[in-house]
Design a protein that fits this description.
328 residues, mainly alpha, 14 helices, elongated
Length: 328
């Protein structure tokens, strides 16, 4: 029985951190046992906002691929590939640009938000405006049924559904309208208490060495009211406790929460428990990362095979598309 297809990717715009691991990669690993999963590194997407400095894209792409595998993605269960190596993405993007009204692109929620967020960059380019079209091509070229997203990302998927619907109406019913595979993405706080993000310089990266991770966790902010060990605190105000809720057992969470409220446990001891549990998650990832870094041919072989498999699916779709449009 054929499995339904899932498609997702990560932009090659920097190193992955434990927020990416908890929020996306861990879920992808579970999905690969149930669905026909296609996972890719979106290196072209990195150009939509970072076109002026491309020096890190190649290294970022390699590091993300290593982290895909180190986190548990299995090339025997899913297809792992690089966006720019499947040129059919670009062809479909071009054809979709012919039928998509400008107003649809201008009303995408992140269009103006990103312009405000990245005021230091010139984003008055078609590449930035047309980002949703390339994203749509990424999804529908594999005729994916599902895209794993959080509830806040559903509006972003809606434009892909609209574009697929418009193509099917104008030409021929080729593309299924991609559906959201709703996933609860827990918020992972960074070392300063804000959401973990490379732009905030508060992230714990999957490529960090053990001593770097330990140092970052040891120096994390806690409840500001706890100046001395004898001061009672509120675990709800402590970013460290937010990470305990992700990495520590229920018993350990209770021990830390009660100890914080009663001053029965100090921040150093609290962090030691967290460090131990983060290391449990990170150690197999570090081991696999080192294996892949020391055996680059293994990584190249996996990516080459995955990209070839993705290309065959994309080529088949484009044959249907060309025929539907009436191209010679």
């Amino acid at each position: 029985m054929n499995k339904e297809r899932v498609l997702s990717g990560m932009q090659a715009s920097g190193k992955l951190h434990i927020g990416n691991l908890i929020g996306a990669l861990s879920n992808w690993v579970k999905l690969q046992d149930k669905y026909d999963c296609f996972y890719f590194v979106a290196d072209w997407h990195a150009l939509t906002t970072g076109y002026a400095d491309t020096s890190s894209i190649k290294e970022s792409t390699k590091d993300i691929l290593i982290n895909f595998l180190a986190a548990g993605l299995d090339p025997e269960k899913c297809t792992i590939f690089i966006q720019s190596r499947v040129l059919e993405h670009a062809e479909l993007h071009l054809l979709l640009s012919m039928i998509t009204p400008l107003g649809w692109l201008e009303r995408v929620p992140t269009y103006k938000e990103k312009q405000q967020e990245l005021k230091d960059r010139d984003l008055s380019t078609y590449g930035f405006l047309g980002y949703p079209l390339l994203q749509t091509a990424d999804i529908i070229i594999y005729r994916a049924k599902y895209v794993p997203v959080g509830i806040d990302q559903v509006p972003h998927l809606e434009i892909s559904r609209e574009i697929a619907r418009r193509f099917n109406y104008l030409y021929k019913e080729i593309f299924p309208e991609p559906e959201a595979l709703l996933t609860e993405f827990p918020k992972v706080v960074g070392t300063d208490g804000r959401k973990m993000s490379k732009s905030y310089d508060n992230a714990i990266y999957l490529s960090d060495k053990p001593e770097e991770v330990e140092q970052k966790l040891r120096t994390m902010v806690t409840d500001p009211a706890r100046i001395k060990k004898t001061d009672a605190g509120n675990p709800g105000l402590s970013p460290v406790y937010q990470l305990h809720k992700i990495f520590s057992s229920k018993e350990e969470q209770e021990k830390v929460a009660v100890g914080c409220r009663t001053a029965g446990i100090g921040c150093i001891e609290c962090k030691k428990i967290l460090i131990k549990n983060v290391f449990k998650v990170m150690e197999p990832i570090w081991l696999k990362r080192n294996e892949l870094i020391n055996n680059p041919d293994v990584l190249h072989d996996i990516v080459d095979k995955g990209t070839e498999k993705a290309r065959k699916v994309a080529e088949e779709t484009m044959r249907f598309v060309r025929e539907a449009i009436g191209l010679y």
